[in-house]
UniProtKB/TrEMBL annotation:
UniProt source species: Candidatus Scatomorpha intestinavium
Pfam families attached to this UniProt entry: Xan_ur_permease (PF00860)
Compartments, record wording: Membrane
The UniProt record lists the keyword Zinc-finger: no
Record has Membrane as a keyword: yes
Full protein name: Uracil-xanthine permease
Residue ranges of the TM segments: 21-40, 46-65, 72-91, 106-126, 138-159, 165-183, 190-210
GO CC annotation, single: plasma membrane
GO molecular function, one term: xanthine transmembrane transporter activity
Amino acid sequence: MNRKSIGNEPIYDARQLGAPRMLVLGFQHMFAMFGATVLVPTLTGLSVSVTLLFAGLGTLLFHLLAKGKVPAFLGSSFAFIGGYAAIAPMLPDAAGNLTVPNTEMLPYACFGVVCAGLVYLVLAALFKAFGVRKVMRFFPPIVTGPIIISIGLSLSSSAVNNCQASWPVAMVAILVVIVCNIWGRGMVKIIPILLGVIVSYAVGAMAGQVDFTAVREAPWIGLPVVWDETVFSIFDGGADTG
């Protein structure tokens, strides 16, 4: 792919970009998935470490089974936030903010996700048996579109809360992404998220809003799994069944 066509024509095979550009796109994908993969457990009270660990393991297994044909990352799904909020809502802290995980009900919410995973297996079997086109006839844009919109609207309050930490930095990130996506050329046009992260992070660092204290205090090695917060605790009395 020549330089003039980058950003102006669809890219159906990232390998045609070459290794250096693929590496840059990989970094962008990492930052894009990291925000979502961390945000979901933060909003639901799950362990961020466990989420990242099993997202990575699941992605590696997926690529192994798909033989590397599908460039995808299996991260957190915003579709489950509503279910978690209904079954295991976050509890208020001393200041009244909903930041305390509901560890008593989290295993039951996780069990619901397991059941949803079983539905995924059924759908996969249907795709295998009848083909993509026949199954997707039941999921037109008029069905999937409102679902995506409702998920986005449910997350709007979280986005506003995050922006309230520093509206100037947030606006810098948004403007960089918009400008690069609309008026950028070549690689700039296809990596707006990465550029938005880099520029806004630099602005935040210069403004003294970047704090590495939590990073310095974090242990180098630790066990991310807390048994009582997993679905398995339902079966050994780890969760209150009363």
